[in-house]
User: Fold these one by one.
Assistant:
Number 1:
Amino acid sequence: MSHWQAFGIGLVSSIMHLLVGIVLMRLLLPEAMKRIKHNIFIIFRDSNGDIMTFDQKGNIIGRWKKDDAENE
């Protein structure tokens, strides 16, 4: 087997793995997104060092004060 044949087989194999991965993600990802209660969209640290997390609609999911994190 020449190196060009091996290269071709490797290239075809890589493309096939990529296509199978894309198909699986298209099938499984919407179902997984329905099961997740909140999708954390933004993690924000303000000037005080406090951390807030927001979902895609802009609702605050969690808020952690800098002092709370340092005391733990």
Number 2:
Amino acid sequence: MESTSARLRAAQASHNSLGRIYGSAIETLPQTTKDTIGYSSAAHRVMREDHQNIGIILDHLHDGILQAIKLRNELNSLLDEVDCETHREIADATLDQRDEIIAAGHARAVTLHAKYAAAVVEVHARTQALVAPIATKIVNNSRITAGSGTIAQELNSDSQDEADT
């Protein structure tokens, strides 16, 4: 999981950088025809936003992974404690008590697994709730840049706003 975390951080930095590049391109696009510059500017705004949003998604995924790693480490530590405690109890017990002690130790371990499984599900749900609306926006933006006419509508809206002023 740690290497996944490092890869997510690297990808996040890359997308943040791309977002900044698209943002500066918006300011430096050459002045050709008004429609061409408007379309290019709108497309660059969409790409900048997408890359910034991908960076945000990667940050949320990274945080979720770190929370899952923390939960894994806590669970491992608690299971080790249960194991050591159960072995100590077995060592001090009579033969007829051992099965009961083993069953009790197993029950404690199963309870811990259930508790931590629920915690991991909560982390997943929180992360998904943060990521889903951003991912939906990126998907919708891909429809814009694929030629659905929304950029053209945005340009027409900009032209109309200029005509109204």
Number 3:
Amino acid sequence: MNIFRLLSGVPLIAFTAPATLPAQNMTPEIRQDIARLLTLQVLTHIGELQETLGAAFQKILYVNTYRSIVLSGKECPQPEATACPAAAILANKQLHRYGGDFEGKDVMTSIHTELDTYDLNQATYQSELELIRKRLREHYLPILKQRELAKERQLLRINATRPEVTVLPNGIQFEIEPGNQDIRDISRSTSETGITFYTRITRDIQFDALPESIRQIADQLPPASSWTFYIPYEAEQAAEEAGRRAAQDMATRREERLQQLIPDHMRNSRPAPPTEAAAPPRERKPLLRLKVWKDTPEYPATVRPDAIETVI
């Protein structure tokens, strides 16, 4: 039996992308909000640990560990090996999320200023946190989305220059792995060959569960033993919209045909088909990397399947 799987365990291509991208629309106010958010997260975390551990909690050790990582501007590769893993893990999360969009010195200054009095102000921290998060959602999240889109476009431009990569009109890129046991069609199964797709969660899904943008171009793919796809969100969104339009057109044509078959004196009595409400705007998702390959007893796959991979 030929089996297809979705793979994310294989190494990514060595994209040559800049370490940083322009900070579109970054303002001092946004940077201050981020620094304040991180300060409140640290103070709240210290309060929780002190309440849990009591006298065993070493506050100064926590602060020193946090300071060394945040002021370095680089995530700690082994947080569990530090003097205070809890502080190192939080610092890593903050650096990963906010990168260079805050001043570590400002955060540390605020922490040292409030370290001895934070327990008196905990009641006001939650409301302050909510206000800051609301402002960041409105003003900082769009900046992150702009950066994500710019990075994706650059990755795709670089990837398109590789001779083994084919760029389809819908924006999807793919490369193939040729072999003797070629897959001729990923969208069909026969009595001799059962076709199954695998993901980490279900381990067994059908062709219809693949991204719409892949299903629509399945008949354009050359024979191969595997394909690796790079799927921009815009390509998948356009494919899903085209699929919806096609379904609506089919329903309209069916209704028109039925109207033609209904006698004239009964034609207007048939209720109009319900119209679908407009779907709410969807949040943009990152670029996907998806690999589909064949697994046979003669050529077994050596890597276990995993979830579809997010490149960004």
